Amino acid sequence: MAKSPPGLDSQTVAAAAMLKRAVDLDSESRYQQALVCYQEGIDLLLQVLKGTKDDTKKCNLRKKISGYMDRAENIKKYLEEVKEDGKYHKQIKIEENATGFSYESLFQEYLNETITEVWIEDPYIRHTHQGIGKEQQTSGLKEIKMSLMNHGVLLELEYSSSLHDREIRFNNGWIIKIGRGLDYFKRPQSRFSLGYCDFDLRPCYETTVDIFHDKHTRKI
Fold this sequence. Notes:
Strand order of the largest sheet: 1-5-4-3-2
Number of helices: 5
Shape: elongated
Order of helices and strands: HHHEHEHEEE
Radius of gyration: 21 Å
């Protein structure tokens, strides 16, 4: 079991690691991810500050927190500007057999409390490992619809014989295009293999994910 360096508690170590990750992402111009890490790191440092009694250490922590907050605020303003200008574009390349690209990992940073609608266009959702078998598609979708309704979520379905594009839209303006659509996971070897339930552990097919922001999200 890993131990914290002498003189440092685990929360301080976690904050330092998170903020180092933020700085690294920032230097690579991966601003959206950097902002998330800055925010998490700042929260951890604030917890450390609350538990610190030494005045000198408190002063140093406040300076660090102030500096990171200023940088996070600048990044936030920059991202808002590029979104307003319609210039935001992030591309993620998923290599063959790569792991760590679950739906949650890809979409989480673009989901927030303002979202009330999601539109998914995908012409090839049919395999069992995608969640729905071809023969059971109708009954499976009905079950999903009823289950979602119990949680206050309305699922509306439309079918098209000419649809070929793959696109996911959130009504907070984010648009996600995946080259292979939602079918970028490889079939698990068995029900007992790693990745059967945890999609972060499931190998992927090679594909590209493009993420945009459009403040004029279409209405359906």
